[in-house]
Write a structure and sequence with these properties.
260 residues; mainly beta; SH3 type barrels; Fumarylacetoacetate hydrolase, domain 2; 2 domains; 12-stranded mixed beta sheet
Length: 260
């Protein structure tokens, strides 16, 4: 099931996406009653997808991100694989949705794309045992861990480099019925392929990461866990259009603009 968050006529709601580009009339949204973090009903009121503005599929309290979770990506930046997952946070103000602009930060001259599978948490949880991880996950979406690489290298701490406004595009929706073990991940910039990998190459699985993170902190409904990026990260410039595509989910597209 694909669950989208959207706005129309100034109202914000969740809906189930039905159909695709090959469907007669195109995909539609069946508006749901309530929210996806509890049992809900479909209203039966359907709106064409192209008549709404898609928003970030969730508004997380926090985004918990994982660094160096693909061997080749760690190597391309001259890093060794860590003994334990490298965990950092991106603030809620970093989150933008599909079609939203990524503002190029004024303190950086080297901004990179990082295509990632994002895990959306469905219920409050802590100290989750491995066999219960699937129970706390609502679903999965596409993410771009946009990074000011020069600031990351210069400042060591990654707060500004990875937490600036607009540095966490998410979308286009949450796919709830998906096995994250072997999904293709691709990133293109202006239509040119930059990254191509698979979640099967992750050093630590989704289960590993959720167990590790929840040993330290409580995750809330709507929180997001970024699972790392495959090799091929590279620069973004003002005017570029960057797209993250994940098998079984869809494509998240954003344009880079000069920060006003």
């Amino acid at each position: 099931m694909r669950i989208a968050r959207f706005s129309i006529d100034g109202n914000v709601a969740f809906g189930v996406v039905e159909g695709d580009a090959s469907t007669e009339g195109g995909p539609v949204l069946d508006i749901i009653k309530g929210h996806p973090f509890a049992e809900f009903e479909r209203s039966g009121r359907k709106i064409p997808l192209d008549k709404v503005r898609l928003l970030p599929p969730v508004l997380p309290n926090k985004v918990v991100a994982v660094g160096r979770n693909y061997t080749e990506h760690a190597a391309e930046l001259g890093n060794e694989l860590p003994d334990a997952p490298v965990i950092f946070l991106k603030p809620s103000t970093a989150v933008i949705g599909p079609g939203d602009a990524i503002p190029y930060p004024s303190f950086s001259q080297e901004v990179h794309h990082e295509a990632e599978l994002a895990v959306v948490i469905g219920r409050m949880c802590r100290e989750v045992p491995r066999e219960r991880v699937k129970d706390v996950i609502l679903g999965y979406t596409c993410a771009n861990d946009v990074t000011a690489r020069d600031a990351q290298k210069r400042e060591q701490q990654w707060g500004r480099a990875k937490g600036f406004d607009g540095s966490c595009p998410l979308g286009p929706w949450v796919e709830t019925e998906l096995d994250p073990g072997d999904l293709g991940i691709m990133c293109t910039v202006n239509g040119e392929q930059r990254q191509l990998g698979s979640t099967s190459d992750m050093v630590r699985s989704v289960e590993d990461l959720i167990v590790h993170i929840t040993e330290a902190m409580t995750l809330l409904p709507g929180d997001v866990v970024l699972t790392g990026t495959p090799a091929g990260v590279g620069p973004l410039n003002v005017g570029d259009e960057v797209a993250v595509t994940i098998e079984g989910i869809g494509t998240l597209t954003n344009k880079v603009i000069k920060r006003g």
